[in-house]
Known about the structure:
By secondary structure, this protein is α/β, with parallel strands linked by helices. It has 17 helices and nine strands. It is globular and about 70 Å long. The protein starts with 13 loop residues before the first helix and ends in a 7-residue tail after the last strand. This is Alpha/beta hydrolase. GO terms for molecular function: hydrolase activity.
Amino acid sequence: MQRKTLSLTVGTVAGLAIAVAGALAGWPDEDGGGDRPVTAAEKRARMAQEAEREKQQERAGLHWGDCPKELAAPRVQCGSLKVPLDYDDPDGRMIRIALTRMESSDPDRRRGVLLTNPGGPGYSGLGHPALLAKAKLPEEVQAGYDIIGMDPRGVGASSPVTCDMTTEQMARGNFPSFAENAAGVSAEAEYAKTVAEQCGKSKTAALLPHLTTANTARDMDRVRAALGEEKVSYFGQSYGSYLGSVYATLFPDRGDRIVLDSNVGPGGYDVRAFRLLARGMEDRFPDFAAFVAGKPEYGLGRTPKEVAAKYEDLAQRLTRKPVDGVDGTLFRGISLEYLFSDARMPELAKLWQALDKGGPLPAKPPQATSDNLSASRSHVLCNDSRWPQDIAAYQRSAADDRRAYPMLGGSTGNITPCAFWPEARKQPVRIGDKGPSNILMVQNERDPGTPLVGARELREALGDRTRMVTADQGGHGVYPFGANTCANDAVTAFLVDGKRPEKDFACKAQRPAR
């Protein structure tokens, strides 16, 4: 199962059981009652509640129906909801937010609604409930919730934005070129400025100021109200961890159980988080180097050190002479993205083999991005926070990051369209510790997309509102895709029974079942 990833280039034992049991011991059972049978009176009450929710949805103009073929899945329905484009003018222009609902697999055990976000920004979330089910989301979670997918504003079927990207720009992807020196930053600045100007002059430019994480969080609360729910639970991955943090900050009393998986820092995908991608690559690459070194048939190095040297050799050679459209920058970006999942390591090794031999590639890499993905991503990143506008600042950051994180730092330290964004930035939402203690963070120790260092910063910012469970494994995304049952069980216990650890804890490494 390939999970959603960052919108960068392409486009996922008995001792442990005892440890989990020990960690869970003493946690309060908020629901009580265990698995006792549902009484007739409780069934009548639930039917009355469901009838009232349906009336509220009718009043809000939220109607559910069959999904188009590409979204069709068991128990999944599609709908949409009108929300204000500008929350400072709530009676003004409205836009439609596209939604999916995967209904509870057992209405007698339904406890509420679970809103979801797969990351991005820029990714469609409509198919995410069905994807989670296919990834073996535990049955008790599927029974406990109606699971909601959503295309955030500006994305997919929710009033999509454009930057009028050309075919060449889409093939190039969202990653800045790898700047070998100050001149490389100056050259990238011309490209970044062009993209920013295209976004500001596109046919959807009127939406540009209003695509922010804060406004998406406000849309989520409109969805909550339209569903007739006093509170909602939430499961957000990657960028979705920031969206969940913002929702918990803006609407602290309307969140039920909030799970944040693969966490960015409290500033969201700001310039610091973008630069930390290079740190994530350095954290994760040793896993791949050990995997390749252990398989001499790949011919890419007999030791992890030799594999790292092969990476740099390929990056330099492809910069001078691309192979089948893959240059040095794209090679670096593809390598990062394939490291999001252990399952893709063999695929990445075979790609390296083909590039080392000058081609042909085993499979042509898919188009790096789409116009809507690139546009919506830029809109949110550039609107959410203040990025430096001085080219010299990026020349310094690229130089610093090349030294600190040589595998990717020349790209992540380079300039982006946010430096030339045509709209004044909004005041960022300040993530803090005010509000109920109803958040659980879960994080891989060697996550290339959202490094552990950023997750720790978010953990500190949220204070007693959260607890954090870390897993000694690599890759991007813990639940339910990862192999670590200790971490997975902790999330399931929280979503199903409200059981959350009293303190942060770390799950030991676990080999995936064969």
